[in-house]
């Protein structure tokens, strides 16, 4: 391995350490609050560090065919430390701004979906319900009118008001007989 490749590997690993530190900040900021219990966070942490290890080995393999030396670990720690001491406050501010922008866009998308998809569905449902109510009442009115027109002569022939009052009296007697009074 030439000296140039070693310097390139050193700087690449330093950048990788800084990237890992930045990703750690993003991970801690974006970890759901519900996942901060013991077991879910342990699983997420394990997955995060496995991905970081794969990233390190990928970069190392691209730089020097995966030749692992002690300066690789030192350069990762140096990159992590440099990020932590210099760029972290600025990165956290930028991260918060980006998160607020993403939240705003997400909120706008939800409002647009609500306005253009959900609201017309609700209006359509209410319109269909109102139309069915009107149709139901019209059919009921027609049936009532037709029945009234059909049975009205029979009612007049039988002496309808007298029959209705007798039926009402019999109904009261039957109710009192069944109720035991």
Radius of gyration: 40 Å
**Uncertain residue ranges:** none
Query: How many β-strand stretches?
Result: 0
Instruction: Tell me the overall shape.
Output: rod-shaped
Helix fraction? over 70%
The end-to-end distance, rounded to whole angstroms, is 112 Å
Number of helices, where a helix is a run of at least 4 consecutive DSSP H or I residues: 4
Q: Kindly name the structural category.
A: mainly alpha
User: Element order, helices and strands?
Assistant: HHHH
Number of domains: 2
What can be said about the biggest beta sheet? none
Overview of this protein structure:
The protein has 181 residues and is mainly alpha-helical. The protein folds into two domains: 3-116, no CATH class; 128-179, no CATH class. Helix content is 91%, strand content 0%. It is built from four helices and no strands. The longest helix is centred in the middle third of the chain and has 89 residues, at 70-158. The mean pLDDT is 90.
Protein topology:
Layout (H helix, E strand, L loop, with lengths): L2 H28 L7 H27 L5 H89 L1 H20 L2
Features of this protein?
181 residues; mainly alpha; 4 helices; 91% helix; 0% strand; rod-shaped
Describe the structure concisely for a colleague:
It holds the Pfam family Spore_YabQ. With 181 residues, the protein is mostly helical.
